[in-house]
Amino acid sequence: MTPLLHVRDLTVRYPGRNRRSPVLAVDGVSFEVSAGETLALAGASGSGKSSTAAAVLLLRRPDSGEVWFDGRELTALDEPALRAVRPAVQPVFQDPYGSLSPRLRIRDAIAEPLRVQGRWDPVAGPARVAELLDTVGLDARLGDRRPHELSGGQCQRVGIARALASDPRLLVLDEPVSALDPSVRAGVLNLLVELQDRLGLAYLFICHDTAVVRHFAHRVAVLSDGRIIRTASARSLHPHPSGAARPRTTATTGKAATT
Ligand SMILES: Nc1ncnc2c1ncn2[C@@H]1O[C@H](COP(=O)(O)OP(=O)(O)OP(=O)(O)O)[C@@H](O)[C@H]1O
Hints:
Layout: E1 5-14, E2 23-33, E3 38-43, H1 49-56, E4 64-69, E5 72-73, H2 79-85, E6 89-92, H3 106-116, H4 125-135, H5 152-164, E7 170-174, H6 182-199, E8 202-206, H7 210-216, E9 219-224, E10 227-233
Parallel strand pairs: 3-8, 3-9, 6-7, 7-8
Antiparallel strand pairs: 1-2, 1-4, 4-5, 9-10
Helix pairs in contact: 3-5, 4-5
Adenosine-5'-triphosphate is lined by residues 14, 23, 25, 43, 45-51, 208.
InterPro entries: AAA+_ATPase, ABC_transp_ATP-bind, ABC_transporter-like_ATP-bd, ABC_transporter-like_CS, P-loop_NTPase
GO molecular function, one term: ATP hydrolysis activity
Keywords: ATP-binding, Nucleotide-binding, Transport
């Protein structure tokens, strides 16, 4: 089967303090992710996980290497051509509050991507927003609120609804539960598992917590100093006692979550 995402020999450099010694954040990274699959990028702080994610999202053009998505080389596209592909590859970030505008009501935050993409339908749009809130297990009445009136877990569900509004095929999840209270992490992870099963989504999952990776991902690529030092089945990772999420096999719906 052809992978949905194929990353080849990716390199990302940042200008260092000394111009002659740039920081090599990502050093020849290659991996693939198929539809319906979760690949975790794990590794210590500073190993290059977020830089890899930013390069896959083309938020930052890699210095070299290729990003292929659904048979097209994204790294070869100019910005207008990329705009047409971007809805299919959506990010979910770590900070649930920081990724939402504090001024926008929740329903407008979810509608915003559709408006920006010129896909907002004033007749069908409100029902679509209500459907997305329901999909992520939130009461439609929360649509009237602003982010500061929601819990962290609710906000992260809104971030997921906002990503789903674009009908994506790949979500780049950059530490999506790390900022959440341990008691609500499992609910959000289970929601992501349910959505993947239902919609066939592919996930590139950035996470430093081995226990979460082990239970949530199918495969893991471990980064160190910008290089992949190991790829394995996520189940083969040595379990870590803290921060465990429920295993994929016990995934339940995230419906009507209030946390
Ligand atoms: N904007 C930047 N300018 C200069 N160096 C950077 C920049 N962003 C990241 N780096 C460096 O690149 C390397 C990889 O950082 P990156 O944030 O990708 O790692 P990470 O594994 O995601 O870390 P964390 O888990 O702490 O977020 C680190 O050495 C970091 O200091």
